[in-house]
Amino acid sequence: MIQNIPKFLYDKLLIQYGDEITKKIIQGLNSKRVVTLRANTLKTNIEKIKENLNDNKIQFNEVLWYKDALIIDNVDEKIIQELEIYKNGEIYLQSLSSMIPAIILNPKENENILDMTAAPGGKTTQMSALSNNNALITACEKNKIRLERLKYNIEKQGAKGINILNEDSRKLSNYFSFDKILLDAPCSGSGTLNLNDEKINRYFNEELVQKSQKIQCELLKKALTILKPNCEMVYSTCSILKEENENNLLKVLNNNVEIVSINEEIFEGVPLLPSNIKGTLTVCPNELYEGFFIAKLRKLR
User: Fold this and answer.
1) What's residue 196's pLDDT?
2) 122-130 vs 96-105: helix crossing angle, rounded to 10
3) pLDDT of 27-80, one tens digit each?
4) 107 near 133, Cβ under 8 Å?
5) Active-site residue identified among 140, 187, 238, 284
6) pLDDT tens per residue across span 162-202
7) Domains parsed from the chain with CATH numbers
8) Contact 47/35 with Cβ under 8 angstroms?
9) Is 187 a catalytic residue?
10) Angle formed by the axes of helices 122-130 and 144-157, to 10°?
């Protein structure tokens, strides 16, 4: 361990980002993250949520780039979970970083959309809300326990038109065809680590990074196979390691797949790390944000 960080991770960050940015990343991973939430517009609106929080003397700040998201100032998750607006699905506790991919995908009414690794359902239900419950969403989850959590959240949030599949997305038939795909891929979680966890080396190691990279590449290739021509997908991870992010994209970019540049200016206030591929976003971890990577791709034909 170096400065409460596994040595292999420290070495990777140093090579990929340099000394100063690595120090910033470590500081961010050591920060205690605040509570953030999303108003579920399938059941309510942000103004009613603000009123409820004010009535319960819960302080909050708005998010510049997403009117339906709030940052909670003075209470922890347990207090929020005691509120009726939580119990009845009017809000969803979700990290700010994980709200970005669905916004970038921009789901629309009547589109046929695949969420390749959907549990626990935060992005699935967000896409339902963004499309006014009028998109046809296929939500895949291979783990049966996580599948039950996905079903629970979809029902609690009042999301409709979602076809839930207990399936490994890598095994989906190539006869499937989608207008848009969200691939929030399984990853090492390097952007969300708690460096104060004494057991960190038991679950976070180089083998996990390598295993994650293999699965990510397989999912990416499948996604691009079943994405319709002239259509777009979003690839995201909660990792800040280039092996799981830019390096994976470089393996699939060719004369039939291109990067669709994400406009950074839309996400005012989001702390960003340098990326090897122009037009992609790598979010730097801090007290407000988890480390995250987001890229949009277009299949040309």
Assistant:
1) 85
2) 50
3) 999 999 999 999 999 999 999 999 999 999 999 999 999 999 999 999 999 999
4) no
5) 238
6) 999 999 999 999 999 999 999 999 999 999 999 888 889 88
7) 36-93 (3.30.70.1170), 97-299 (3.40.50.150)
8) no
9) no
10) 30
Quick one: tokens of 202?
């038991």
pTM: 0.96
297 vs 190: CA distance, rounded Å: 23
Cβ atoms of 191 and 292 within 8 Å: the answer is yes
Pairing assessment for the beta strands 257-260 and 162-165 based on DSSP bridges = unpaired
Answer for the pair 25, 242: CB distance below 8 angstroms, yes or no.
no
> Exposed, middle or buried: residue 15 (CB in 10 Å: 0-12, 13-18, 19+)?
exposed
Rounded to whole angstroms, how far apart are CA atoms 130 and 111? 12
* Axis crossing angle, helix 7-17 with helix 19-29, rounded to the nearest 10: 130
**Residue type for position 15:** I
HEC secondary structure over 153-215:
HHHHHCCCCEEEECCCHHHCCCCCCEEEEEEECCCCCCCCCCCCCCCHHHHCCHHHHHHHHHH
